[in-house]
Design goal:
151 residues; mainly alpha; rod-shaped
Length: 151
């Protein structure tokens, strides 16, 4: 093999190595972006759930004649949580979807309870006690999917 053959071989190897490096960088960036997107989805649903829980506490403690007015103000919260839940249902694995649905179901149940009467603070705290278990389950599943340590 002459000098031109060696130069051609070296150029070819350099081109293949450069393509491999570009592909590796693209792959790593894609994985990083997918993880960031997943974190945003999971945290977004969690944050929307938390905001709704705070709203339900206000709704539960409100007098019956003020509940309709308070609910009107929270329509955007309901839209936000429904949007975030839809994203989770479409894009996440079954284990995350299942626990997100359980959390959503618990929130729906609490919303119905909050509308029934004016709840004393301690009674409402007791009524929403089961929510903590579902919230912990969602948080654990989400952290596991993101590769985070257990709390």
């Amino acid at each position: 093999m002459g000098k031109s053959g060696t130069a051609l071989l070296a150029s070819s190897i350099s081109a293949v190595v450069a393509m491999a490096v570009v592909w590796l960088q693209y792959s790593l960036e894609r994985r990083r972006q997918q993880r960031a997107d997943r974190a945003e989805r999971l945290a977004g649903f969690f944050a929307a759930s938390h905001a709704l829980v705070l709203h339900l506490g206000n709704l539960a403690r409100a007098p019956l004649d003020e509940k309709d007015q308070i609910e009107v103000k929270a329509r955007d919260l309901e839209d936000r949580i429904n949007s975030r839940l839809a994203q989770v249902q479409l894009l996440e694995d079954r284990d995350i979807v299942d626990v997100a649905r359980r959390l959503d179901g618990q929130l729906v149940h609490l919303a119905r309870q909050a509308r029934t009467k004016q709840w004393p603070r301690d009674d409402w705290r007791e009524a929403r006690a089961d929510l903590s278990l579902v919230v912990s389950a969602y948080q654990s599943a989400a952290r596991r999917k993101l590769g985070a340590e257990k709390l």
